[in-house]
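Lab manual, section 2.4: Encoding a predicted structure.

Procedure: take the sequence of the chain (197 residues), apply the prediction step described in section 2.3, and record the output as structure tokens. A sample record is shown.
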Amino acid sequence: MDISCLRCSIKGNIALQCSLVLSGIKPSNLLIYSNECSGCISEELKNTGLEHTKLYEGEKESVSIIYNRFSIENLINDTGNIDFIKKYGYIDTDIDNILVRLSDRYTSFRNRKSEFPHEIGILLGYPIEDVVGFIENNGQNFIYSGYWKVYKNAEEKIKTFAMYKEIKRYFIKQIANGKKLYQISSEFKNIDTVFGF
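Recorded output:
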């Protein structure tokens, strides 16, 4: 396949799956992509200020976490979040070491050797009450389901999910109009200007 086709494909996938971190609304998103596209991710993220780390590499597709380092570090510095992830063996709270540990745990899960690493929800910016609610209820008994399963404050999160949906639509539309990811991302320096939220 032509490299430009791969870049086009990965750009669309990043816009679809990672628009919320590109817009600065979330600290990170997961990106699932064909192994053929691995080499294109750094190029597409150029000038966005985001980084990526591969969590899992399968035979045909891989999973990476696309993240804003500053936002992730702020999450990790929250006492409740630190205490939570330490339960899963995260002793060192350096972001690079956390991502190495997460990659090991996620790969083990994908290879059916261990349970799902629920702490990933914290790094993805899910509220801790919903991450804990999911674990305690085995993914059942939620009061709403959107970008994640909600166990508390549904009304507030329904509004958040509506905003997420609009941002995703906006990114896809702008990609279709030929814009680069960093150009769209830079438009979100002031989200009120874009959407009036």
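Check your result against the sample. The chain has a mean pLDDT of 90.
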